[in-house]
Specification:
The protein is built from 7 helices and 8 strands. It is an alpha/beta fold. The protein is globular and about 50 Å long.
């Protein structure tokens, strides 16, 4: 007698903007709870929104969980390149998206990357690279970090259907460590290696969800 089969595993989409981010995040998928897609959207909120909408419209992606990841600029004095940011919510011009399982992600990241500082709080969006005095203005809103794609990515994901969403970013640029270009990270910190090391935490978050969602 045939054994009844349950629903297929719910996919995980990990979205990033840059080729270097995708190279870090497309590592071994051992331990994943389902199919994993690493999506490179291109830079900026408009590109992120288009890429996410297109991806979630594909066959088999209706219930996919989504994590926006990659690099970010820290806004809080005392942050360092290589620190991690787990968003409690993302903020953009079209509103706020509340993230799923922030505590689970923060704990899993602390275990996967002992010695790295994990910050939790609001992650705000921008349509350009933030530098100098503009940081203080964004920090005054309560945000702890900024990037160009996370808010648009998660908003598009939620518009495409009810699903778990999260955002995890690696700080490469901070108030006392302003970055001229992405290749100038100093102090023995490799943002690429830090980003690559987050994958087990992403898979733990994915496993912890009560999926599939209906």
């Amino acid at each position: 007698m045939d054994t009844p089969q349950g629903p297929p595993p719910v996919p995980l989409v990990i979205a990033c903007a840059l080729t270097i981010e995708r190279l870090a995040l497309r590592g071994a998928h051992g331990g994943a709870a389902g199919p994993v897609t690493v999506l490179r959207s291109g830079m900026g909120p408009a590109a992120a929104e288009r890429a996410m909408t297109r991806t979630l419209g594909a066959a088999g992606m209706r219930d996919a969980a989504v994590i926006a990841s990659g690099f970010c600029a820290g806004l809080v004095p005392g942050m360092h390149p290589g620190d991690l940011v787990v968003a409690e919510e993302t903020r953009g011009p079209d509103g706020v998206t509340v993230c799923t399982g922030t505590e689970v992600l923060a704990k899993a990241l602390a275990e996967a990357l002992p010695g790295r500082t994990v910050h939790t709080g609001p992650l705000t969006g921008s349509d350009h690279v933030v530098r100098g005095p503009e940081r203080a203005g964004l920090r005054a809103t309560g945000a702890i970090a900024v990037d160009m794609e996370s808010a648009a990515t998660l908003r598009a994901a939620r518009q495409a259907g009810s699903r778990p969403v999260a955002a995890v970013r690696v700080v490469v640029d901070a108030p006392e460590h302003e970055l001229v270009r992405i290749g100038t990270v100093r102090g023995g910190i490799s943002a690429f290696r830090v980003l690559r090391a987050v994958l087990p935490a992403f898979f733990e978050w994915h496993r912890s969800l009560l999926l599939p969602r209906r």
